[in-house]
Design the sequence.
């Protein structure tokens, strides 16, 4: 993984832009993905699901196995039915 | 300056949507870096890095200051709170340019209970973030439109 000091402002914008696109992908497919990945946590890269898992530790290992950086991929989760947080 | 926000669902069963900001979080003292989507929560004064994001940052809780004395409730779940000093948040404005805000500190959460439920808790930016950055929040859930905006002071009127 790149060290913190090596992540330039240009690279940071690229990471943000990719994350925004991947979040849009999740929003556009929310109903389908939430059924398929109910209760799971997922990682998205280039508008596709690259890993899903029951725990964040497991997800991080799967993302690393795909030669991706867990710090820079878009990560979200789909709470199971019946679980709602009042935030 | 205007910062576009995403308005999105978080809970499959509910129609509720939330305003979310895509950002990077740097904790230079702990060599922490992360891209995430944070919920703008006007019901919280403080900002929190969620446990799932702390783990992605690959920073060790043992390297952080000891947690404050009492667990804090968030989303109905209890968390231990480690206060990390010196935080840099970066995000994109509507022109695609990078904007950067420094917070003196941020609360880094460690689940004090069920990891199964805690993994669904998102990172949160509270009103302290809005105050420090000088942002106003515009949120129209019906139109699914939201943004942060700094309002420039009006130029003095010449007489």
Sequence:
């Amino acid at each position: 993984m790149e060290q913190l000091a090596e992540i330039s402002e240009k690279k940071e914008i690229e990471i943000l832009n990719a994350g925004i696109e991947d979040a849009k992908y999740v929003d556009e497919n929310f109903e389908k993905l939430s059924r398929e990945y109910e209760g799971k946590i997922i990682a998205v890269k280039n508008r596709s699901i690259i890993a899903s898992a029951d725990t964040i530790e497991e997800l991080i290992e799967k993302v690393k196995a795909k030669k991706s950086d867990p710090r820079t991929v878009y990560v979200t989760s789909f709470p199971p039915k019946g679980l709602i947080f009042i935030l | 300056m205007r910062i576009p926000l995403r308005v999105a669902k978080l809970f499959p069963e509910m129609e509720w949507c939330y305003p979310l900001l895509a950002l990077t979080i740097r904790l230079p003292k702990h060599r922490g870096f992360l891209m995430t989507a944070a919920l703008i929560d006007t019901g919280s004064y403080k900002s929190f890095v969620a446990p799932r994001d702390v783990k992605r940052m690959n920073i060790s809780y043992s390297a952080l200051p000891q947690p404050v004395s009492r667990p804090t409730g968030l989303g109905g779940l209890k968390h231990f709170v480690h206060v990390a000093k010196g935080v840099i948040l970066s995000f994109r404005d509507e022109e695609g340019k990078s904007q950067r805000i420094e917070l003196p500190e941020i609360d880094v959460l460690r689940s004090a209970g069920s990891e199964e439920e805690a993994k669904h808790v998102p990172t949160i930016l509270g009103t302290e973030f809005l105050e420090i950055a000088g942002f106003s929040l515009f949120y129209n859930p019906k139109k699914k439109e939201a943004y942060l905006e700094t309002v420039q002071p009006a130029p003095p009127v010449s007489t």
Q: What stands out?
A: Residues 9-28 of chain A form the longest helix (20 residues). The CA atoms of residues 34 and 78 of chain A lie 6 Å apart. The first strand of chain A starts at residue 41 and ends at 45.
